[in-house]
Design brief:
Layout lengths: L5 E7 L3 H8 L2 H8 L12 E4 L4 E9 L3 E8 L9 E10 L2 E9 L8 H17 L2
Antiparallel strand pairs: 1-6, 2-3, 3-4, 4-5, 5-6
Length: 130
């Protein structure tokens, strides 16, 4: 794994379908991260998350199973290409095993691995498992 690729896995005590729908719903995405989001379950639609810090476009959606997005933050330079985010939602005993694969991250970016853990996975655990 290079510093331009992140692969993380985490298990949630909810179904893959439930987690997939929450990720692509503006209100629930905002609630599970504690920030505003404008997202859609439509292929090709653009999105923003984390109060506009994150933006991108849905490239591929497989209902309840997979989301692939072009993804960037306001830390990217204007000439930087989008990175690629693939999120898989797989059934696991008692819930959903989420695998996040974040690739093509431009050089010089912040530590997105820690960001995914701190700003997504920790609040999501609290939101879904309270």
């Amino acid at each position: 794994m290079t510093n331009n690729t992140i692969e993380l896995r985490i298990t949630f005590k909810i179904s893959p379908e439930r987690l997939y729908k929450a990720w692509l719903d503006s209100v629930e995405h905002g609630e599970m991260t504690g920030t505003s989001a404008s997202v859609s379950a439509a292929p090709g639609s653009e999105f923003t998350a984390w109060d506009g810090y994150i933006s991108g476009k849905n490239l591929e959606l497989v209902e309840g199973r997979k989301i692939v997005q072009a993804w960037r933050t306001t830390d990217f330079e204007p000439q930087d290409p989008d990175s690629r985010l693939e999120i898989r939602f797989d059934p696991s005993p008692g819930g959903c095993a989420l695998t996040l694969l974040h690739t093509d991250i431009p050089d010089g970016q912040p530590d997105y691995e820690e960001g995914w853990r701190e700003f997504y996975f920790e609040p999501m655990k609290a939101y879904f498992e309270q």
